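## retry 2 of 3
previous attempt timed out at serialization; input unchanged, resubmitting
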Amino acid sequence: MEGLKKPAAVLFDWDGTLVDTLEGIRAAHDHVRVSFGQKPWTDAEFHEHIVWSARDLFPRLYGDQWEKAHELFYGHVKENHLRHLKPLPGARDLLQLLRSLNIPAAVVSNKKHEYILKEVEHLGWQDFFFHVVGAGVAARDKPAADPILWALERAAQPFPPATVWFVGDTEADLKAAAAAGCPSILLTHGADRQALVNAFAPVIVERDCRAIVNILMKYENIHNKAC
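## retry succeeded, writing output
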C-alpha cells in the first residue's frame, strides 16, 4: 500500500464484495445439476466454478445442453435472488463515505445485467454508482478488462485506469483489474487467499469493506492535517 494514492474512482465487484448472494447462487446451480441428474456441488467445486460468468461457464459444464441449463439457472435466480440478498459488513458505510468524499463509484459484475440492476434498486443503492455493468454489457465479461474499461469510458470525466481502484474477491476480479491497468484490492472475508496474493500481488488485501473505510479515512485525515 505504500505510495498508493487516494483513488480518483473506485469500481466494485458485486457478489462476495458488496453483497452476499452465495446462498442463492448455489441454490440455483444445485437446481440445475439435480435437473440434469447430477449431484449438487461440494463446497470446493462451487467455489472453483463461480469465478466464471454464466455465459462462459455453462457451455463448459453442459455442452450442447447449455442453453437449457442456462434457462433453468436464471429461472431459479429470477424467482429467488432478492430474498437471498444481504449487504456485506461495512459495504453501505463504504459507499456512503465515497459519496461524501466525492469519489465516484461503479459496479462491474459477471451477474446477468437485469438482475444486478434489480438488486441495486432493491437495496436503494442506485445513487451510489455512476454505472452498473453486468454480464453481457461489454464484449467480454471478467476476467477480461472489457467491462472495467466500458464503465470508465462512460464516466462523466476521464479516469486513467491507474488512478482507479478495483475491489473484488475472486481471481477473475484480480485478472480483470490487471488487464485494465487498475490497482486491485482483494477482500478475503477471512478465507485463506494467499495463492491469489502470490499470483496477482493486489495493492491492498483486507478482510472486508470496513477495512477499506479505515484506509480511506486515513487519506482524509492526512489531507485535513495538511490543510
